[in-house]
């Protein structure tokens, strides 16, 4: 019987036009060096690790961010501008029109980074920037053996994550984390599932988070239709409806 991976590869190859394909010869994966900086966001880190964003993670402009988000995830430019403008509020570069990826770890005042991450520690515990095995293990435990992450599964995992945070972190800020966590889920499900129905492919999502690498070698390609902020917000609302 064909494996899930082989079926996925065959389907992907049939559906993705060659002209739209990302390939690792053009955008090779390279892990960051000791002098490179990365964000508390695995998707942005993957873009940097493939050279779609500057590999050193530094001096990112809006133009660079918009181009990378479109090439890597087909996120519409005005949507990237709306979300990306928040990132520039955290800039430590001395130039308000640029930011470094590690600037995004800023926790207070709240801009983007938040408590209750799928794969990072809360700021209260110190390192809110690096991938955290325990946080990610809790996410995986909530997903269980499901190969498709539906709205209901996403909502249940989000609830478990927030309950854990409230029970263990005396400064847990659910208010700031709520909207951001839902929007993040909608973007993840859209990139690795369907732009309307969600249904994210768990294998692809795990690959992104655990490797900070686009799952090109698994046959994945960016969505063939633009991802928009309005659609992501609508999906976030659907996840919120089943919390």
From TrEMBL:
Gene3D superfamilies reported in the protein's UniProt record: Chloroperoxidase-like (1.10.489.10)
Leader sequence segment: 1-21
InterPro entries referenced in this protein's UniProt entry, alphabetically: Chloroperoxidase, Chloroperoxidase-like_sf
Keyword Iron on entry: yes
Key words of the record: Heme, Iron, Metal-binding, Oxidoreductase, Peroxidase, Signal
Lineage top rank: taxon: Eukaryota
The protein's required cofactors: heme b
Domain Heme haloperoxidase family profile: 25-234
Classification via Pfam families: Peroxidase_2
GO MF terms held by the record: metal ion binding; peroxidase activity
Family membership: Belongs to the chloroperoxidase family.
Name of the featured protein: Heme haloperoxidase family profile domain-containing protein
Species annotation: Diaporthe helianthi
């Amino acid at each position: 019987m064909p494996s899930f991976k082989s079926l996925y590869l065959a389907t992907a190859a049939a559906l993705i036009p060659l002209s739209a394909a990302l390939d690792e010869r053009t955008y090779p994966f390279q892990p960051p060096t000791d002098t490179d900086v990365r964000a508390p966001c695995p998707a942005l880190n993957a873009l940097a690790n493939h050279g779609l964003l500057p590999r050193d993670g530094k001096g990112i402009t809006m133009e660079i961010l918009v181009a990378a988000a479109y090439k890597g995830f087909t996120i519409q430019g005005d949507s990237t501008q709306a979300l990306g403008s928040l990132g520039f509020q955290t800039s430590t570069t001395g130039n308000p029109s640029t930011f470094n990826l590690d600037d995004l770890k800023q926790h207070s005042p709240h801009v983007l980074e938040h408590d209750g991450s799928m794969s990072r520690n809360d700021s209260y515990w110190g390192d809110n920037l690096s991938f955290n095995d325990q946080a990610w293990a809790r996410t995986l435990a909530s997903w269980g053996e499901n190969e498709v992450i539906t709205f209901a599964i996403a909502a249940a995992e989000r609830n478990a994550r927030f309950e854990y945070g409230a029970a263990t972190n005396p400064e847990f800020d659910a208010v700031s984390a709520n909207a951001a966590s839902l929007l993040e889920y909608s973007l993840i499900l859209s990139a690795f599932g369907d732009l309307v129905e969600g249904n994210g492919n768990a294998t692809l999502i795990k690959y992104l988070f655990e490797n900070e690498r686009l799952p090109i070698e698994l046959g994945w390609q960016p969505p063939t239709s633009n991802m928009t902020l309005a659609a992501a917000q609508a999906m976030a609302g659907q996840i919120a409806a089943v919390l």
